Amino acid sequence: MSKKWQITVPGSTANLGPGFDSIGLSLSLYLNLTVSLSDKWEIIHLSDHLPKEFEIKDHLIYKIAKETAARFNKELPACRIEMTSELPFARGLGSSAAAIVAAIELANIVCDLNLSTQEKLDISSQIEGHPDNSSASVLGGLTISTMDENGNVDTIHIQDLDASFVVFIPTVELKTTEARSVLPDQYDRSHAVSASANANMLAASLILKDYERIGRYMESDLFHEPFRAKLIPYFNEIHYAAREAGAYGTALSGAGPTVISIIPTEIEEQFINKLEKQFPTHEILLTRADQQGVCVVEVKNDVLA
């Protein structure tokens, strides 16, 4: 068995508007772990998006990897982990889901679990509580998923979306618990019917890869965005400016506060240049859908095998 591995997990955006807790899209922004077996636990953070101070026992990677090993009656061996991340914490770009998927893969390789893709989908979604971000990070591409009461995930997997995505990342954090606290406990029937219809149309448009309709229905959410908008810096202004600059559509990335636009690939440069001038307080990144999902590569003599 190899003694060193590199685990790469894409971040993700969830919902894309009305696809609440079910639609996820992997993004070409990554969490990377270099893992080697060791005599003691070490987790070394090598990028600014990761906290400087922490206790190993409280680290999400350690906790989930240990929990995953325990599910299969295995003892997790000590590891040395070097981590880099392009995913800012609590911004709606799937940082926690990526960490969970990475931790499951860590346990899988060091404990010889031989997990199937379905098991990775089920375990990560059970830990997350919903399958949107985790399914996208496991599979790559776009996923439309559901999880039953027993924690079994069913996923439709779509690849090769011919569009680009732009994320508007503010400096403020927004915890998912806070974003969920502003949602209503229930919706009346007519509201629920309209919200469900919009979600259905978004899913159908994604399957058809009808980008103009995708954009239209991304902006038609009735489940969460109307209630969360007040928590999001420049939410309405970004919507308007992105549309004026040629975006197909714009929505919250997950629970926010990041906002994401889907745009034609041919306007990437001019779109970014224009929006960077209008929103200098945001980090604005161009990205595409990752197509591979979680990836593990053996490292031999410090060379990727």
TrEMBL record:
Catalytic reaction annotation: L-homoserine + ATP = O-phospho-L-homoserine + ADP + H(+)
Pathway: Amino-acid biosynthesis; L-threonine biosynthesis; L-threonine from L-aspartate: step 4/5
PROSITE patterns (UniProt xref): GHMP_KINASES_ATP (PS00627)
Classification of source organism: Bacteria, Bacillati, Bacillota, Bacilli, Bacillales
Classification via PANTHER family: HOMOSERINE KINASE (PTHR20861:SF1), HOMOSERINE/4-DIPHOSPHOCYTIDYL-2-C-METHYL-D-ERYTHRITOL KINASE (PTHR20861)
Signal sequence region: none
Binding site for ATP: 88-98
Job description of the protein: Catalyzes the ATP-dependent phosphorylation of L-homoserine to L-homoserine phosphate.
Sequence similarity: Belongs to the GHMP kinase family. Homoserine kinase subfamily.
Chief location category: cytoplasm
Example GO biological process: threonine biosynthetic process
Transmembrane residue ranges: none
Taxonomic superkingdom: Bacteria
Alphabetized UniProt keyword annotations: Amino-acid biosynthesis, ATP-binding, Cytoplasm, Kinase, Nucleotide-binding, Threonine biosynthesis, Transferase
Cross-referenced Pfam families: GHMP_kinases_C (PF08544), GHMP_kinases_N (PF00288)
Subcellular location field: Cytoplasm
Name of the encoding gene: thrB
Protein name, as recorded: Homoserine kinase
Xref: HAMAP family: Homoser_kinase (MF_00384)
UniProt GO MF annotations: ATP binding; homoserine kinase activity
Domain GHMP kinase N-terminal: 60-141
One GO cellular component term noted in the UniProt record for this chain: cytoplasm
